[in-house]
Amino acid sequence: MSEIDAIKERHSVRNYTPERIQAEKIVKLNEKIRELNEAGNIHLQLIEDAGNTYNKLFNRVAGLGSAPSVIACVGPDDETLEQRIGYYGERLVLFAQTLGLNTCWAGTFNKKNIGADIRAGERIVISIAIGYGDGKGKPHKSKTMEQVIDAKGDRPYWFNKGVEMALLAPTAINQQKFLIRLNEDETVDFVDKGGVFSQVDLGIVKCHFEIGSEREVTI
Ligand SMILES: Cc1cc2nc3c(=O)[nH]c(=O)nc-3n(C[C@H](O)[C@H](O)[C@H](O)COP(=O)(O)O)c2cc1C
Per-residue pLDDT tens for 107-153? Predict the structure, then answer.
């Protein structure tokens, strides 16, 4: 499955079957995590038994309590940590999709129960529920391309393709509070328009834009 197909097929899944992730997929996920942690200077951790990570009332209502496993998104705390977590975490989410797994980014979780290894100077930013979905989720309601871009004149194909993929990105409470600006010299700026977890969102959006446009972004 291509990354574009993974983007198109990925939707947040909040209800999971009790099936555990098979050993060979755990190995592949951990290999990918090692690679991403090195590239992004972060400390993502796959925790096979989600235990009581999602025992908060909101989680129980939403259904995440059924998630068998969870990814703890941890890293050295600095001003770019949240974007790095968004960008590299979404790379992992899309990889998981190609393995036939489903996921849901979740800012609401029990930090005490997740059982993450958080070293000196590190911070846990967010969690990602992972397992086999009881269903594949459904496409989110989306803003239009015009609502999220600032671009004058004709737009190059690669830019449109990047924005198209960015609109399929998961964002906290589906807020899509980002702006993608095409400058006259064909560089691109990503603007954070605020909101809860908006820096994580921006990292995720950059990941999708990069895949769609085939142009490298900076984090
Ligand atoms: C940073 C972030 C935090 C999120 N937190 C939660 C959460 O706490 N609980 C939840 O059920 N979904 C959460 N979500 C999932 C969003 O609600 C979901 O991505 C959005 O509605 C778009 O739907 P989609 O992912 O199916 O495309 C979060 C997503 C992101 C990106």
Answer: 999 999 999 999 999 999 999 999 999 999 999 999 999 999 999 99
Q: Is any atom of ligand 1 closer than 6 Å to the C-beta of 178?
A: no
Q: Are residues 33 and 83 in the same domain?
A: yes
Domain containing residue 197: 145-213
Indicate if ligand 1 lies below 6 Å from the C-beta of 67. no
Total tally of structural domains belonging to the chain: 2
pTM: 0.98
Measured on CA atoms in the order 42, 47, 51, 56, is the torsion positive or negative? positive
Same domain, 42 and 93: yes
Interior CA angle at 55 toward 52 and 61, to 5°? 145
102 and 68 co-located in one domain:
yes
Among 32, 58, 57, residue whose Cα is nearest residue 45:
32
Q: Which amino acid belongs to residue 121?
A: G
